[in-house]
Every structure is written in structure tokens, then in C-alpha cells.
Amino acid sequence: MTVGVIGGGQLGRMLALAGYPLGLDFLFLDPSREAPAGRVAPVVHGAFTDPQPLKWLSRECEVLTFDWENISVEALRKHASGARRARICPPVPALATAQDRVAEKRLFERLGIPTTRWRAISSRSQLERAVREVGLPAVIKTRRMGYDGKGQMRISTAEEAQQAWQSLGSVPLLYEEWIPFDCEVSIIGARSTHGQTVFYPLNGNVHADGILRLTRAPFGPGRWHRTAVEYLTRCLEHFRYVGVLTIEFFVRQGRLIANEMAPRVHNSGHWTIEGCATSQFENHLRAILGLPLGSTRPNGHSAMINLIGEMPAREQLLEFEGLHLHDYSKEPRPGRKLGHCTLVEDSASRRDRLARRVLAQVAPAVRVS
């Protein structure tokens, strides 16, 4: 059985590595000839908007999925409307919602999931009204094509709001209140073609410059996890979702406030490869192929550290007992995710001590409470 993956980044690469023990084959579509997935599976090179590679991928595969949400919804919709096409999972409506921050906010409100106060803005007058109604400080984000801190600016004054309008290109934007949060968390779950659902322990996430640097799991009190599962379940059922879905939250005084969702396997779930009975990557494949979902039981207390911009020497990392290294075989570049490492310990305190030691080597500016 062959799975087609639109996008050949590190997430796709890890999907393939999780699928090979299940006897699956993989075929990727990506415009880059340096795509990380090309090290482990064949890649068809072409634009995500080109219908011909999509048609070819569909003929060769039983199901299509994706490892990045900023791909062409229009191309997928045209593909899905054709005869005898491979199924697309997760569902295209979920992808379309995640691509538009305003549609995402409206979904959260419709489903009764707390989110920030916000306004959609597409003109200077709407921007000025948003400043008055939502207040300052705030964050201005592009409605589309933003990730890892890109396409957004924090503002504290009306003058900075006007500067952000110019800097972000006068495109449709989202204006939302700045939340002085206590911490950031994410919940990852999977739903199969048969409606079976599983949920991973809550992740505690630390970002720097808009990029995830550290995830720890399990994290937080049980009530946070139960609330996050309830909110994620509403989204899974709304879309009749198939695959892995993630929601990221701010936590303020014990209250979970939804930030955004990701209709794919997620960076904050990389720890599940070594840290759970079944990784998020394997469960995504099980879900889209209609197989029974695997246990999400944690193997201990895990930490995942992203390796950004430049890869440390292997010797520097592997000297830490129990560290698992994942190198994505990508060229170094400032702000680029080049790999990650995972630690699994028998207690949260041991995990945190070791994570601090590793961070002191690879990202000394990142502070962990």
C-alpha cells in the first residue's frame, strides 16, 4: 500500500520512517530537490498547484496526506472532485480553515472554545477601529501564510499599528489582543476513518523568536489535559476529521485560550517517537488508512529540543546519556529547523535537569522554569 504525501519536509520524512515497519510505501510531491523526505522515499518534483503531479500521485497511491498546511486548497479541491481519485486526509475543509486565521477564530467561537478578542482588518479604518475596540498591546498577523513567527508583529501603540500595516504589506490581517500568558501548551489527537479517537498527554511548549524550542510532556495538571481534550474533540467531530490534529493554547490563570490549530502531525509531538507506545506519525498513518489506532501511553517523562539554524556536533549531543538525535539532513540557515533531540526520563525533575543541560549547550538563551 502506497501513501502519497504532499510536501517532503521533515514531517513527511518522519511519516515515512514510521510507516515502513507497517509495510507501507511512500511517494512524495515537493518542489525542492533537497527535500528531506528524498533521503528516505521517492519524490516527484513539481509545484503544489500543478494538477499533473497531483494526478500522477493519485494514480499511484491509495490515500493522499500532507505535511504542511500552506499548500493549495484550490488544487486539492479540484483534485478531490475528479473521478477515481485517491482519498485526501485530513479533510480539505480543515486545511482551508487552518490556512485562514480569521476562519480559525470563527470556528473556535462557533464551537465554544475560548480564544482571544480579535478583529479582521483589511483597511486602515478597520485597523483604527480594532485598536479602539480590542485595545493595546496587541498582535497583528497576516490572515494567511504565517508560521514559526513569520507574518506577525507585536504592537504597543497606535503608531506601531500603522507601521505594522505598512510592514506586513497592507494585506488582509488579523488583529488580536496580546495575552500575558503564564505558559503555552498543545494537545495532539488522532481520529480514524471509523471515528476512533486517541489523545496524547498535554505538551508544555517554550518558544523563542516565534519558533518552538522546547516541549515537555506530560505537562500541567489533569484538568488542563481534560479541557484541552474536550476542545480538540469538538474540532475532530465538527470536521469528521481523519488524521492527527493539534490545537495550541495560551494558559492564563489556569484558563486555556486557543491560539491556533494545525491539521497535520505537529512539531510539539516529535517526542512521541521515543516517548509513547505509538508515535503521532504512526497514528496518523493508522488513522488515514482505517487501521486501529495505537496506544498513546507515555513511556516516561519526555523533553524534545529543536535544533535551529546550525546543527551542533554529533559528539556534543550524543555525550548525553539517553539522548535520541534526529538530523533532518537540511542545509543550515538562520531560523531553520535542522533537527531535534529527545530525552525520556523516569521523573519530571530528572527530565527537566537534563533538558537544561542540553539547552545550555545548544540554545543557552532559552530559559526553562
Detail the topology: elements first, then pairings.
Blueprint: E1 2-6, H1 10-19, E2 25-30, E3 43-45, H2 51-60, E4 63-66, H3 73-81, E5 87-88, H4 92-99, H5 101-110, E6 118-121, H6 124-134, E7 138-142, E8 152-155, H7 158-167, E9 173-177, E10 183-191, E11 197-199, E12 203-208, E13 211-217, H8 222-239, E14 243-252, E15 255-262, H9 272-275, H10 280-288, E16 301-308, H11 314-318, E17 324-327, E18 337-345, H12 348-362
Parallel strand pairs: 1-2, 1-4, 2-3, 4-5
Antiparallel strand pairs: 6-9, 7-8, 7-9, 10-11, 10-12, 10-14, 12-13, 13-16, 14-15, 16-18, 17-18
Helix pairs in contact: 1-10, 4-5, 6-7
CATH domain class name of the largest domain: Alpha Beta
Number of strands: 18
Alpha-beta content class: alpha+beta
Largest sheet: 9 strands, antiparallel
Form type: globular
Overall mean pLDDT score?
94
* Poorly predicted segments: none
**CATH topology of the largest domain, anyone?**
D-amino Acid Aminotransferase, Chain A, domain 1
SSE order, one letter for each helix or strand: EHEEHEHEHHEHEEHEEEEEHEEHHEHEEH
The CATH architecture of the largest domain: 2-Layer Sandwich
Beta-strand content bin = 25-35%
The named CATH superfamily of the largest domain: ATP-grasp fold, B domain
Based on CA atoms alone, the radius of gyration comes out at: 20 Å
Helix content: 25-40%
Count of structural domains: 3
Q: Terminal Cα separation, in Å?
A: 46 Å
Quickly describe the structure.
This protein has 369 residues and is α+β, with helices and mostly antiparallel strands. It has helices at residues 10-19, 51-60, 73-81, 92-99, 101-110, 124-134, 158-167, 222-239, 272-275, 280-288, 314-318, 348-362, and strands spanning 2-6, 25-30, 43-45, 63-66, 87-88, 118-121, 138-142, 152-155, 173-177, 183-191, 197-199, 203-208, 211-217, 243-252, 255-262, 301-308, 324-327, 337-345. Strands 10, 11, 12, 13, 14, 15, 16, 17 and 18 form a nine-stranded antiparallel sheet that branches.
